[in-house]
Design brief:
Layout lengths: L2 E6 L5 E7 L2 E8 L5 H15 L9 E5 L5 H18 L3 E4 L1 H14 L12 E7 L4 E4 L2 E2 L9 E4 L6 H4 L5 E4 L15 E3 L10 H10 L27
Parallel strand pairs: 1-4, 4-5, 6-10, 10-11
Antiparallel strand pairs: 1-2, 2-3, 6-7, 6-8, 7-9
Amino acid sequence: MALILCIETGTDICSVALARGGRLISLRESTQGRDHARQLGVYVEEILHENDIRADELDAVAVGKGPGSYTGLRIGVSLAKGMCYALQIPLIAVGSLEALVRVAAEDDEAGILDIDDFASARLCPMIDARRMEVYAQVFDGRLRPLTEVAASVVTPDSFSEFVSGPGEFVIFGGGAAKCLDVLPKGRVKWVDVTPSARGLVTPAQEAFDAGRFEDIAYFEPFYLKDFVVTESKKKFF
């Protein structure tokens, strides 16, 4: 019964989950903006304390590897790597879009989402990449990927293969709402699903069972796009 700490910080949401044997036992998260550097360590400490668990009892740490916010990913991965190195336990990385579609599946099973037939739907989690660009990947109703992860500028022709195909084309995540006015009306459904570390629980357990671990020294987040430094418009001198 592996005890795994799960961390997701690739978006505005800072989220930490604790799972045992692939089952969520505790969750801490905030939707109050990108204050991850201050919140993350506190959430980890709180979630361990409230479950009367010492850090050295953990079997692994799983982290959302991206794509997503450059700074957010660096914060989550840095803490995960530091804990794994100090505790001498494995590091597990889970794609952030895969984790997001897992959250959607849980929410649908709980009756939260308005999806006519989840099994036949085409599911497209989206993470905001600024302006009209999103990080996206399409999955089928069994959570099998139908496309690779991509950074896409959304146009009326985006995802046309899936929009015009059988089953509902369902979009969700922080980058989805802005696409509704661009994609064909009446052919796309938006549902409210937000990133959460609970989406890492199942794939992290699967990776642990299969021994799919990352090299702690060399692992880097999956940024997908290069980090671009922009010049501030404020003049200080």
